[in-house]
UniProtKB/TrEMBL annotation:
Keyword Magnesium: yes
Region (Disordered): 75-99
Biased composition (Basic and acidic residues): 85-94
GO BP: inositol metabolic process; signal transduction
Name by which UniProt lists this protein: Inositol monophosphatase
Sorted UniProt keywords: Hydrolase, Magnesium, Metal-binding
GO MF term list: inositol monophosphate 1-phosphatase activity; metal ion binding
């Protein structure tokens, strides 16, 4: 009997990464829930002021990046709210020395639905994805409502 080839051979590591993605998404969701409905500062990524970013987006991303760097220091991170300089500094602070993009890439949207969040609509989530050599390995989408 021929078995289909597996895209990722280390089941234990894959499960560890998946569990970490879920746990981190929930942790970031707790940060979002704690700030939902409160007055928060807003900046915009574009001159037309169509793409808002809040202190909560940044706090969630800081949490996620810190956790990933602590648990998987050789993994790369692409975060919606993170500049290249911030990504480099986070890697250095974690003691990581890998090239800009290794085999594993975490893709983060710490507050998916910022406009809804700002308008008090409970239609937002934390999105965390993990790629291994460019292929999806794990992901977590956490919706921190209803409580």
């Amino acid at each position: 009997v021929n078995q289909p080839s597996k895209l990722f051979e280390d089941d234990v590591l894959a499960c560890e990464i998946e569990a970490a993605a879920v746990e981190m998404a929930q942790g970031a969701g707790d940060i979002l829930a704690a700030h939902f409905g409160r007055k928060i500062s807003i900046e915009y990524k574009d001159k037309e002021e169509r793409d808002p970013v809040t202190e909560v987006d940044k706090a969630c991303q800081d949490y996620l990046v810190g956790e990933i760097n602590r648990r998987f220091p050789d993994h790369s991170i692409l975060g919606e709210e993170q500049s290249e300089e911030e990504a480099k500094k986070a890697k250095e602070d974690a003691g990581a020395t890998d090239p800009p993009c290794g085999d594993f890439l975490w893709v983060l949207d710490p507050l998916d639905g910022t406009t809804n969040f700002l308008n008090g609509l409970p239609v937002y989530a934390v999105s965390v994805g993990v790629l291994h050599k460019g292929r999806p390995l794990a992901g977590a989408l956490f919706i921190p409502w209803p409580k």
